[in-house]
UniProtKB/TrEMBL annotation:
Residues 39-137 bind DNA. Residues 39-137 form the OmpR/PhoB-type domain. The keyword Transcription does not apply. This is Winged helix-turn-helix domain-containing protein. Transmembrane segments: none annotated.
Length: 141
């Protein structure tokens, strides 16, 4: 039986991943899951997310996001169209279960206020009533 080790860590800039990768120097790269970092830059109409640099550009202008906002935006943007519940988003960003907190809706609200042209009518992060949130890629005009 193969030994499988799963390491879960929030790592928006890739430093933890790189340290683990360096420590596992003898393991072939094809045996290491690279999926969280396969897209170092997410480029959407009007919004660019430079994951490893921790930079978000809206219309070419840098947007300041805190750790939770950046991590949540990256998680949603890496999976456009997929619906995530509050619990799933909280767990993806903070690595722990979500317990009756307004952290996720408040974070989504702050992300929208900083990244959306009209936060009351969001372009990128949509609320799916009774289910959660999803990232939508707007059509280019």
């Amino acid at each position: 039986m193969e030994d499988i080790i799963i390491i879960r860590a929030t790592d928006p800039d890739g430093t933890i991943y790189q340290r683990i990768r360096d420590a596992l120097g003898g393991i072939p790269a094809e045996e290491i899951d690279l999926s969280p970092h396969k897209n170092a830059v997410l480029d959407f109409p009007g919004l660019i997310i430079q994951i490893k640099a921790g930079v978000v550009l809206r219309g070419g202008i840098s947007v300041q996001l805190n750790y939770g906002e950046f991590s949540m935006l990256c998680h949603l943007a890496r999976h456009p169209g997929r619906i995530f519940s509050r619990d799933q988003l909280y767990n993806a960003v903070y690595g722990e279960d979500h317990f009756f907190s307004n952290t996720v809706p408040n974070t989504i609200c702050r992300i929208r206020s900083k990244n959306e042209p009209d936060p009351r009518h969001p372009t990128y992060i949509k609320t799916v009533v009774g289910m959660g949130y999803k990232f939508v890629i707007p059509e280019k005009h």
